[in-house]
């Protein structure tokens, strides 16, 4: 029972990060109907910025802030300088370009920082606090929950309560009508990319210290897990991404706890396959009206 | 009053290599309603899209309020005082009634004026006020029409471009809409250019009828003449 409890909390903590990362995928999917396969690499690039800033200043938090800023900026740049120029008539084009971006970013990071694991710090202890003799949650887990919670709430607030959020939703749903109503649709798309990439950078900052460390490929498996989470929730649904993220986190935690850590990639792919076979629209797929 | 709010001279436009509009001339005096009528495929919708810049004209001039409208980005159009309600009315189904309306006023810097314009629209279209929190796709056809029109009006436009406002609506709702347009023109000096297949109801309120056929303007005449002159009607409208 102790083991089960520990694995559950550990899974929820990882799941919160997957949820954030899946949310970033959903944001871009909703804004531009693109699955951003480069999101993992972009997030790693932001984490390297944090590494450099922390190395120079000695402050974890300055590095953390720098990573978020770098994430926002990188998202905007990728939209304006790359995705905007891609012919979107075939949905395959942005996918291929995003995969190319992955190779480019990982190659550049490897040349600048080297292809080896660099140590990544956590701001709080990772040893679990015991409740009634059972180790459950570490201070770092609490930090992860709080950060993801705050970011999720902030996104909900932006999209439902602010004028800019209304513009972003309108631009995504009906670009032509939005332009007639004076909405800068291109600007909203860029903003969506920036926000998503910022959330992705945050997720990378949260999860990299809990794994082997900083490496150009550090987010590869996280991306696959988060992508599975996003598909599980239905790519269009932000609540679905959160539920999917927590679900995938739990599953992987149980698999690695009871069956062995080597099976994690296999479990992710098996889950992805199952979802795509049984419910390709995801658990939270909205009823789609047939367009005539 | 007096003078033309909108004129087009020798306007040509099309999709890719296929020309649709040829040499279109029209003038819409301030504070009047002009009805563009004609069969399917006559180029009516294309004309509206070219006027609002959604489709770049290949030749000709568009002058709005004394200034050339070509080259104005579509996003800037509302700020110049032109509202375009597209075919199918363009209500965003995923947003609520209140959000759709708010969107129409977002570009306005003067928040107080925007808020009072919103209130006015809720008074003008009472059913919308009752369904504020409903999603756009939950509305009936008539309510969507109100929403699209209301959303254009919160921007306080000087020129309203309407594409097929009667499409799919009950005759009584069409008559109400047309009467409302007439009232807005008379009371506020709004200028309307509407594209319509429903010739009778359009001509009933319009000042001017512009008949299009195969991408050309074949006749522009006072609406009353088109309505009452049986020979003209037979020749150009086929009834």
TrEMBL record, chain A:
Keyword flag Cell membrane: yes
Membrane topology: Multi-pass membrane protein
Main location: membrane
Keyword Cell membrane: yes
A Pfam family the protein falls into: BPD_transp_2
TM segment ranges: 12-29, 36-54, 60-83, 95-114, 142-160, 181-208, 214-235, 242-260, 266-287
InterPro entries assigned to the protein according to its UniProt record, in alphabetical order: ABC_transp_permease, BCAA_transport_permease
Keywords, sorted A to Z: Amino-acid transport, Cell membrane, Membrane, Transmembrane, Transmembrane helix, Transport
Compartments, as annotated in UniProt: Cell membrane
Family according to the record: Belongs to the binding-protein-dependent transport system permease family. LivHM subfamily.
Name recorded for this polypeptide: Branched-chain amino acid ABC transporter permease
UniProtKB/TrEMBL annotation, chain B:
Keywords: Amino-acid transport, ATP-binding, Nucleotide-binding, Transport
Domain ABC transporter per the UniProt entry, residue ranges: 6-239
Keyword Transport carried by entry: yes
Matches recorded under PROSITE patterns: ABC_TRANSPORTER_1, ABC_TRANSPORTER_2
Annotated InterPro entries: AAA+_ATPase, ABC_transporter-like_ATP-bd, ABC_transporter-like_CS, BCAA_Transport_ATP-bd_LivF, P-loop_NTPase
Single GO MF annotation: ATP binding
PANTHER family: HIGH-AFFINITY BRANCHED-CHAIN AMINO ACID TRANSPORT ATP-BINDING PROTEIN LIVF
The name this protein goes by in its record: ABC transporter ATP-binding protein
Organism in which the protein naturally occurs: Micromonospora andamanensis
Gene: livF_1
């Amino acid at each position: 029972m102790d083991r089960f409890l520990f694995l559950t909390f550990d899974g929820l903590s990882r799941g919160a990060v997957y949820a954030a990362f899946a949310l970033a995928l959903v944001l871009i999917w909703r804004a531009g109907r693109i699955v951003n396969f480069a999101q993992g690499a972009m997030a790693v690039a932001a984490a390297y910025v944090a590494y450099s800033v922390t190395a120079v200043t000695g402050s974890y938090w300055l590095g953390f802030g720098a990573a978020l800023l770098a994430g926002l900026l990188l998202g905007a740049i990728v939209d304006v300088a790359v995705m905007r120029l891609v012919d979107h008539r075939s949905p395959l084009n942005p996918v291929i370009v995003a995969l190319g971006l992955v190779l480019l970013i990982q190659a550049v990071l490897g040349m600048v920082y080297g292809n080896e694991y660099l140590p990544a710090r956590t701001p709080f202890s990772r040893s679990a606090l015991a409740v009634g003799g059972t180790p459950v949650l570490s201070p770092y887990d609490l930090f992860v929950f709080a950060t993801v919670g705050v970011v999720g709430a902030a996104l909900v607030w932006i999209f439902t309560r602010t004028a800019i959020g209304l513009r972003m939703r309108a631009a995504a749903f009906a670009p032509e009508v939005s332009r007639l109503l004076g909405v800068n649709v291109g600007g909203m798309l860029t903003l969506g990319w920036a926000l998503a990439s910022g959330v992705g950078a945050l997720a990378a900052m949260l999860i990299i210290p809990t794994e082997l460390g900083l490496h150009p490929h550090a987010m590869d498996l996280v991306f696959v897990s988060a992508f599975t989470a996003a598909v599980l929730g239905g790519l269009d649904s932000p609540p679905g991404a959160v539920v999917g993220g927590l679900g995938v986190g739990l599953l992987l935690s149980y698999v690695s706890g009871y069956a062995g850590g080597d099976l994690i990639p296999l479990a992710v792919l098996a889950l992805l396959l199952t979802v795509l076979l049984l419910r390709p629209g995801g658990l939270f797929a909205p009823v789609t009206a047939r367009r005539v | 009053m007096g003078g033309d709010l909108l004129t087009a001279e020798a306007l040509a436009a099309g999709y890719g290599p296929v020309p649709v509009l040829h040499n279109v001339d029209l003038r819409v005096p301030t504070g009047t309603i002009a009805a563009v009528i004609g069969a399917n495929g006559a180029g009516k919708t294309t004309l509206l899209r070219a006027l609002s810049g959604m489709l770049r004209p290949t030749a000709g001039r568009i002058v709005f309020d004394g200034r050339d409208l070509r080259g104005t980005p579509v996003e800037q159009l509302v700020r110049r005082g032109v509202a375009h309600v597209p075919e199918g009315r363009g209500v965003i189904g995923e947003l609520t009634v209140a959000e759709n309306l708010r969107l129409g006023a977002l570009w306005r810097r003067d928040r107080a004026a925007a808020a009072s314009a919103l209130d006015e629209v809720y008074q003008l279209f009472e059913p919308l006020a009752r369904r504020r929190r409903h999603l756009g796709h939950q509305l009936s056809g008539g309510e969507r029409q109100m929403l699209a029109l209301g959303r254009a009006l919160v921007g306080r436009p000087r020129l309203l471009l309407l594409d097929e406002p009667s499409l799919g609506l009950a005759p009584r709702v069409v008559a109400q809409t047309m009467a409302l347009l007439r009232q807005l023109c008379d009371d506020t000096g709004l200028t309307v250019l509407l594209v319509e297949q429903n010739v009778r109801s359009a001509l009933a309120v319009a000042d001017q009828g512009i008949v299009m056929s195969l991408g050309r303007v074949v006749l522009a005449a006072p609406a009353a003449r088109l309505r009452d002159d049986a020979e003209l009607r037979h020749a150009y409208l086929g009834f």
